[in-house]
């Protein structure tokens, strides 16, 4: 607290010295620079254009000056969640900041790094190796009292590892990689290695954990968790290979890294042969499907009207879980699997959480449901401007707002960054004439300009960059924009949602 | 409370009228009669003989005057568990009372019946049909605040149904069957029918419930639960067939009963093909086996030293669960399955509960581990006399004491009562010269006298009775004892227990 007070006193003194005009000019310059590298432009939907900029502004606002303190679920906009930070910071907010304000992403991860001792202590309490990061916290301690939906959600650590790997791949920030990223990756990998085990058939299983969907708990081999753990284990092994001497200081060597690669290779990914879809967790698709027909509109959100005993044991999904895996580990699925999985989970996803629409937008767009994707995109973007969950007075849903960027860039822009490669697969819904966005990647500024017919990739500065466009490798150089045609999409019948839980369809003339 | 006060006043007035000698004589006559029909005699182990009589006396004491109030876990002997009653009354205490003091068993079930409205209300709260009986209670309300180990343990209801069916089969008490049993069976069957569901392959699944073992929770298709639910569903359908008019008053008809039989027939009983054993619940045998080698003696009971998160996700068993199914639904397993299952679970059962040793004794005896059975028998019988769990000051472990009778009669006597048939398969351990026990069955008094060589069945009064002896049908008539040779047992290698959790081996000369 004295440090914060000193910082405030210094900031006030500096502000008085700078004066109003100076402050205004500095602020303007900062934001002009931000919009120059980060703006998302939509043509054809003025309202949504404003909403996306509102969302992006608040995402920046939540993180730009966090300065190695946690980015809370509500940012600094309200008292909701008691100021706690959750996994959604790394999952939804940091990917946006990584490509638009990377220093803020770095600082947020440095904050996680600063809490490593507490996370190691927590792992030890639980009889585990490495670090177990908290479900909800202010300064690093676990503040959730309900372990089935808190401590058991070990995917928290893999989301941090994923954010570390993404930040490093997008920035080539080797100092961070060595000083911060390595240790975060090593300690989270150690957690997975001790949490899971090899069964007699040599499969690596992670049993008794909770995935992102809060209407399930304590299940075996949650696909999202296992795929993120796999990424985590491999990223840690790669980091040890990059920094063997620093790894040695953490007691990590190539032998330990080899055990991580083994576990990653042997990771169990459940598959329902009969239905031809991935069960969210082992056995999930055998459960009774929630009786949506007899659930009235007034009974949503379900958690306020039904006991968890009932929610946990049935097929009903609060927020994207398997579908989130389709996005962030899209490299682990075929296109056909994604389409089938999306359609399956769409029927039972009720979106009683704001952490769902943006992910559904991304996968809906990828598998060809562009109009549905557009509706989800709008839901994420308007979450607070229209107070869709009736609780904006408690503060903004920062992760959902970040999700508006994700829906635009990863949804209609088709941006992916698996294994450090930057690829796009843009395709616009009927109601958008044009989508343009900018982002930073390895010291370069890139602009992507999408119309119904084609996409133009412009490198605004930096050395030539290799990209993917709908599966084709292209290279862009400064001042030499590359325009590529958008191939025709796949036609699929529209999936259905639980009755009454369809996203709001925006009228074409809503502007 | 006024009723209790009136009862006390009346009892005191009557006692003063009767006088000391009269009271003593009445008490003596009552107990003489009890021992005459219920005594268990052991030759070769005086200490254990005393312990078994102590156990039987306290089992009677807990229930004989409960008079339609609950039989608490501690009886009336102490404040442990706050005076609450649990499922173990029906599971362990009532089988003993059914064959030794059936009126007490009847009254205990009448008490459950008196709480049906509360159990129906609870089911409704949970979105279920029928009646959901509480995990722990004094007068019928659920008093457990931790639902994964309370409400989710729905097997409570099936244990009540099992006790109802057993009492009726052993007494032919048709008035009870019609007035009390029928409704208990119907309402518990309705619970199972609504709790479970048919999957696309037509299998009836009961997901997300907790079985007897308190080191697991919220699992799918717990074998014990499913087999008891199957028994419950069939018993209810049979009761509707016996009393169609009374069933109609409960809104139950043959169509509804048919849906119960369907569910019972289609019940999922998981099987691990590779290991050739039954998983306690679906997926259980895939879990990591608890690290017993690195668990020190001071870390038992595990629940005081490890988080439930860890216990729930690993193969470690607090108390007989699958092995309890091998006993009470022994008709659903082959002999070879029982032997393999027992050996498998023996390796991971830590007996951090007093509700385990007696069941392990019964199955150890059945599958041929007679010396091990003897040690478990002694553990159940000496639970309080030797304060084995260091908490006898809180009251006696009534269910474990009842378990001493079960270990003797169902263990070394091999008594079973599946589907209303009374069968025996007696076989003595090295340290017992003789075992004799008496029991009531359909208005008859039966005495069974077992030596190493043979067993003699004597009908003390009542019409001829058909029995089973080691798989052979025999008929006993009054004053015509039947003596049958005991066939040689199967030799099997002794199973192992978690290090340090072996039962105490009693020295042969401990008398």
Structure, described:
2 copies of one chain form a homodimer. With about 500 residues, chain A is of the alpha+beta class. Chain A is globular and about 65 Å long. In chain A, helix 2 (about 45-65) packs across helix 16 (about 400-410), helix 3 (about 90-100) packs parallel to helix 6 and helix 4 packs across helix 6. Chain A has 16 helices and 12 strands. Chain A has helices at about 1-40, 45-65, 90-100, 100-115, 115-125, 155-170, 175-195, 225-240, 245-250, 255-265, 310, 320-330, 335-345, 355-365, 370-380, 400-410, and strands spanning about 40-45, 195-200, 205, 290, 315, 425, 435-440, 445-450, 455-460, 465-470, 470-475, 480-485. The longest helix of chain A has about 35 residues, at about 1-40. In chain A, the strands form 4 sheets. A 5-stranded antiparallel β-sheet of chain A has the order 1-7-8-9-12. In chain A, strands 6-10-11 form a 3-stranded mixed β-sheet, with no helix packed on it. A two-stranded antiparallel sheet of chain A has the order 2-3. In chain A, a hairpin with a 5-residue loop joins strand 2 (about 195-200) and strand 3. Chains A and B meet through helix 11 of A and helix 11 of B.
